Amino acid sequence: MTDNQELLEDFKIYLKGEKNYSPHTIRAYCSDVYTFLLWLNALSPLELTGDKFSEYLQFIQQINYTKTSVARKIASIRAFYKYLFQEEMIEANPVDNVSIPKQNKMLPNYLFEDEIENILRGIKIETPAGYRNRIILELLWVSGMRISELSGLNYENLNLEQNEIRVFGKGSKERIVLIPDKTKQGLINYIENVSDLICKKDKTPSSPLFINYNGYRLQNQSIRKALKKTLDSIHFTKYVTPHVFRHSFATHLLENGADLRVVQELLGHSSIKNTQIYTHVSLEHLKQVYDHTHPHAK
């Protein structure tokens, strides 16, 4: 193993063990650092100067990466050199003063309540898989869960007497999400009657809640495919992903008077800044209502 490979492997362990980053973030950061090390060629990363790093910034900006991609690559390398500095492998951090390009804030896409109801009605619940898919999409909407949080659910995560589900978000951060009685009854019916029709197997606390016909945990890609199939069948024209249901959850809460801190807690955001973007979505909705209803706005 080369010195660079050892550094990258140790950095990976640092991100997982000390920073508690998600597997997705770790892969992205290590991939960014790996391509950076390839670009350095024979130069050791321990000998990097600020001027040399500026050359790298010019290089990646010529490849027409998006601002988001450039920002992430800079963040990855900054994290790498912060690690090297903490481990006293370098005397000074050569990328410490590098600024990350500002990103254009984009309002998240979301659905109106009647649009979500239309999507849910479009799922054929006569089949076991159809019923399972409907309850999955309904859960995404009413709880604000991420798709990875939902697919990772086990029976031990359920506290249906209290209408609660325990999920593990980014960085394995634990939180409680809530579900209404109607969704709870649908979930109970899935557990007691439908899941065995998909695949009959023992339901232990550590068993996956949502399974495929082979009895294995239903994967994110299968949920995305089921959603796309439904959207195609009802000729739904808006761009919709499972994450749009999460955006819709937050938007509907704020539109109906929920406190921003409550929404932050339910979404599992570490910073309120991540939640505040939904206030802009809500404002856009209010403007649309105003333009369509106030006589002097027309």
Question: What's the helical proportion of residues?
Answer: 55-70%
SSE pattern? HHHHHHHEEEHHHHH
Domain module count: 2
Task: Determine the mean pLDDT.
Answer: 88
The counted number of beta strands is 3
Which of globular, elongated, flat, extended, rod-shaped describes the shape? globular
Describe, in short, the structure shown:
By secondary structure, the protein is mainly alpha-helical. It contains 12 helices and 3 strands.
Structure commentary:
Strands 1-2-3 form a 3-stranded antiparallel sheet. The chain is globular, with a radius of gyration of 23 Å. It has 2 domains: 3-86, Orthogonal Bundle (DNA polymerase, domain 1); 113-293, hpI Integrase, Chain A (Orthogonal Bundle). The protein contains 12 helices and 3 strands. The protein has helices spanning 3-17, 23-40, 50-61, 67-86, 113-121, 128-143, 147-151, 181-198, 220-233, 242-255, 260-267, 272-293; strands spanning 158-159, 164-168, 174-178. The longest helix is centred in the last third of the chain and has 22 residues, at 272-293.
Give the helices and strands, then pairings.
Elements: H1 3-17, H2 23-40, H3 50-61, H4 67-86, H5 113-121, H6 128-143, H7 147-151, E1 158-159, E2 164-168, E3 174-178, H8 181-198, H9 220-233, H10 242-255, H11 260-267, H12 272-293
Antiparallel strand pairs: 1-2, 2-3
Please tag this protein with its features.
3 strands; 2 domains; DNA polymerase, domain 1; mainly alpha; 298 residues; hpI Integrase, Chain A
